[in-house]
Amino acid sequence: MAYAKLSGALLVRKDAPVAETVSVPSVAPTRNPSPTPAPSVRQGDGLLARHLKSLKLPTFLSQYERLARQYATEGLDPSGYLLRLAELELMERERQLIERRVRQAHFPALKSLDNYDFSLVPSVDRSLVLELARCDFVARQENVIAIGNNGTGKTHIAIALGLAACQKGVSVGFTTATSLMHELLEARDEQRLVRLQRRLAGYRLLIIDDLAYVPLSAAGAELLFEVVSERYERGSTIITSDLPFEEWITVFGTARLTHAVLDRLTHHAHILQMEGKSYRARQSVGSQSQRRGNGAGRAKRAE
Hints:
CATH superfamily of the largest domain: P-loop containing nucleotide triphosphate hydrolases
Number of helices: 12
Order of helices and strands: EEEHHHHHEHEHHEHEHHEH
Number of domains: 2
Distance between the termini: 131 Å
Radius of gyration: 37 Å
Structural class: alpha/beta
Strand content: 5-15%
Number of strands: 8
Strand order of the largest sheet: 5-6-7-4-8
Helix content: 40-55%
CATH architecture of the largest domain: 3-Layer(aba) Sandwich
């Protein structure tokens, strides 16, 4: 018997009247699969850890569990929990940025004003040094020139000011006058002088230590002048020297060049006069006296 399909629910015999339709039950639609269950707490922690790594939030990753327990125990506001995590993340990033700036500065050692004994060099203006440590002079593109006897802590203060600048987000470079001259001459000979000059000009604070008795070559003196000239009113420079200004001609060779260098360096400058006996020698004498005192004390106790 032949049937013709009229719809998904009816079958009709071809030679039958319309009344002889046969009803076919509809098939129930297939139910949608059950939704995936939410991840467990342990699975959620794993996903969160992966997301935090992807977002490059290492402090969130290392601290969120400890802080979550603390805030849950103390019943604190969840928004405070997130705020504290964000603060820790920012603090850690700032610490890493400071460390990077300090590494890139190439300080020969790390010195701070906390361990500089101003009483050993009474000629230095302590209030001025502490004011300079706020680094406002960098924002104003001003210079600092520390002049005084050998061993009075000029390099110590220069590094301390540079370190304070790093902590305040300032790019800093440290070099000695002799090293800088050799680096400039080598760069010139190797056809990379422009790149080096651009890097030196890019530091917001450049420290040139120990502009002293060793005279610069004529070419080296000219190149050093170009560095100073390029930074004039564009960046801050700290210079330390054992020589008073009138004797800088022994370093730069000619009165013309010496005057040009001093004119640019001293126009917007803070001068630190650091006269007195050697800071290092007096510290050494003090240490020896302390060791002798400790030895005498031990000997007396032994008696």
